Amino acid sequence: MDAGTSAGGVPGFRRESDVVSSGLGREAGGWRMLSGLLADSHLTPVELLPARASENAAAAGFPRVLIYLADLQRQVLRLLAAEGAGAEEDDRQLSVQGTVAGRAFQHGQILPAGPAGEEGRDWWVPLLDGTERLGVLRVSAVHDDELAREGMERLASLLALILHSRRESSDFLARVERAEPLNVAAEMQWQLMPPRVYADGRVVIAAAMEPAYQISGDAFDYATDGPLVHLSVFDAMGHDTAAGLSANLAVGACRNARRHGGDLVACGEAAEAALIEQYGQRRYVTGILATLDTRDGTLSWVNRGHHPPVIIRGNRWTTHLRCPPAHPMGTDLGLDSHLCREQLQPGDRVVFYTDGITEAGGTGDAQFGLEHFTDFLIRHHADGLSVPETLRRVIRAVLEHHDGRLQDDATVLFCQWLGPRPDPTEEAADLGGVPEPGRPAPAGAGGRTP
Amino acid sequence: MTSNGLHLDVVETRGPLAVAAARGEMDLHTVAGFHPQAVALIDDHPYVILDLSGVTFCDSSGLNTLLRLRRHADENGGRLTLAAPAGRIMRMLRLTGADTVFPLYASVTEAKAAQPPDIR
């Protein structure tokens, strides 16, 4: 497998000059980069990941790798490096808006980070964990060709997986991802909620929440389960830490019921019981609990005193679903839960949202408005932007509309049903924002993977 | 009776019945002062008609206060009746299904007419 043991010294590590001579040598170098990083991944603290990445990637013609992570608000990209180490101060934090790095992040494209020089060129490479956009890499590449682009994309895919695996155990990562201090509820909620983007051949799911650093009682949840996709949004009353706690409780109770085979009605009842047990009837949580059956596009849902979801079909038609509300979870008002059903068509987008999206700002005149919001979604969808980028922009627009200060959490959970087959498709890749070289190979086309 | 930004004016009391009007914005900050005043009113007059026509804003804490007062009235053998909720608060009541658990009337006059005969 490894043609280069003659290089001597440390196994698995070769000087870049050893491998640039032939295409075959570069394929082997690419393989060694990935296998070296995989081997290192077991025992490498995340602080040392950029150094290990650079060492291993040198074998594939990428002598320097820098990792930038998007902040929670997706407005800046922050260098993963210890204070004072590495890059110039100016390069430690880059804006997503108006920079090339930001464009690579927004559009999921590999873009040049500077002019070509004698030793090659630097590139911005999107960093995707699944379809969750973690940030970008800055990669110095000796070569400028398709093989180099493929190599960078593979490097980014592997680094994203390693970064993800360290997420739960690293305060360093948590600090890099925050450009501002979080409140306690935000600290809890971001830990609680699933990644903000998910896609496969059947669905594209994306979520956004503001104010990302100062959450009170909102939470979203989704999960796949065979052909089923569970989707829910929650809005706990109040704007204090207890609101965050109630939201956590509702999500936890609901997941627990679901994972033990409970249906949507049972989920809502479990959340209600947990809230009443903890808070008497002093705290409540509203929410929509839904399940999409991706085999036939049936959306089942229960309304617990919340805004009904909106369906967007094609680029014009929207409808607000109707379902008699059961009382908010935790109020014990005795209203029955109705399981409502809606037949989706392939391509339909279901949008769940909370108060802050339409009502923040108080008395009503200054509302962003649900119509404005759905128009915005439709327009950017027509522009061909990926779903996560569209949501990033819409939530930013909501925020700007309120001069950066929301009175209430604004959450949107978006799910597009593509069809019944889970296999990767070009459509899912487009909507999920997967960069070109990472696209699924057309059926029958042999890949060049070693 | 006032609290910061949300006022409770007692318009009329007769035996167990009281008619009171809430005025202002009902949110996390304003309900803190409002709630004990309303509880005290219910303690004295368990049948309360609350005129909401002057409530210009209501968030989840506002709704929660109404639900708590409703329970308090029930526990005291009385009833909290809502009258003339303005657009915003009505939307909130509908959204949460709470419009079906409160006795709800378009005006104070109608709310009074709907009280049990021995209360009117």
From TrEMBL, chain A:
Keywords: Hydrolase
Domain PPM-type phosphatase: 200-417
Coiled coil (residue ranges): none
Pfam (any one): SpoIIE
Record has Ribosomal protein as a keyword: no
InterPro entries, alphabetized: Bact_Sigma-Reg, GAF-like_dom_sf, PPM-type-like_dom_sf, PPM-type_phosphatase-like_dom
Residues covered by region (Disordered): 423-450
Name of the protein: PP2C family protein-serine/threonine phosphatase
TrEMBL record, chain B:
SUPFAM superfamilies named among the record's database cross-references: SpoIIaa-like (SSF52091)
Record-annotated STAS domain positions: 24-115
InterPro entries, sorted: Anti-sigma_ant, STAS_dom, STAS_dom_sf
One Pfam family of this chain: STAS
Family label: Belongs to the anti-sigma-factor antagonist family.
NCBIfam families the UniProt entry points to: ant_ant_sig
Protein name as annotated: Anti-sigma factor antagonist
Organism: Streptomyces glaucus
Taxonomic path: Bacteria, Bacillati, Actinomycetota, Actinomycetes, Kitasatosporales
